[in-house]
Amino acid sequence: MTDWWQRPLQELDREQWEALCDGCAKCCLHKLEDEDSGEVFYTKVRCRLLQEDNCQCTDYSRRSVLVPNCIQLEQGNVDELDWLPSTCAYRLRAAGEPLPDWHYLVSGSRETVHNAGVSIRGRAISDEYVHPDGYDEHIVTWVE
Ligand code: SF4
Ligand code: SF4
């Protein structure tokens, strides 16, 4: 039997689409782009709306209003967002790859993404405490 998350992205309904997220919160980190090369660098500076202990957005329904540069992942843009981490469930499924063992849909636990060291829990800093001009001091290499 095929689980719903093994089906192509375009066959998922809205609820399934939302449920595909692994909860890593890496996409809630601020990123810097090299103007010349276009290369994207992740920083450990996170959006202030993120609750870091569970990596959930504290105001998900109003996120696009409260944080205008919060990216809304949609069926139509996931292929264009090549800065998404290689572990991102949307990126994996868009490429036809299976979900990893630590994904909660596979493991049955929301904790496994954290236990596997994939999420940002415990290693980010809120953007309330970092001036945007200083983001480059917080570039990290643990997001691939
Ligand atoms: S990077 Fe992908 S899987 Fe991780 S929180 Fe963001 S959308 Fe969800
Ligand atoms: S508004 Fe919510 S979903 Fe968007 S970047 Fe901030 S914490 Fe993440």
Strand order of the largest sheet: 1-2-5
Q: Indicate the overall shape.
A: globular
The percentage of residues in β strands lies in 5-15%
Ends apart, CA distance between termini: 32 Å
Low-confidence stretches: none
Annotation, overall tally of beta strands:
5
> Structural class of the helices, strands and pairings?
alpha+beta
Query: What can be said about the biggest beta sheet?
Result: 3 strands, mixed
Radius of gyration: 15 Å
List the bound ligands: iron/sulfur cluster
Mean pLDDT: 94
| Secondary structure: helix percent | 10-25%
Helical stretch tally: 5
Q: SSE string, helix = H, strand = E?
A: HEEEEHHHHE
What does this structure look like?
Belongs to the UPF0260 family. It comes from Halioglobus maricola. It is a single chain. The chain is α+β, with helices and mostly antiparallel strands and 144 residues long. The chain has one domain. It contains five helices and five strands, in the order H-E-E-E-E-H-H-H-H-E. It has helices at 14-19, 63-66, 89-94, 104-107, 112-115, and strands at residues 29-33, 40-46, 50-51, 56-57, 125-126. Strands 1-2-5 form a three-stranded mixed β-sheet, with no helix packed on it. It has a two-stranded antiparallel sheet with strand order 3-4. Strand 3 (50-51) and strand 4 (56-57) form a beta hairpin. The longest helix is centred in the first third of the chain and has 6 residues, at 14-19. Bound molecules: iron/sulfur cluster (2 copies).
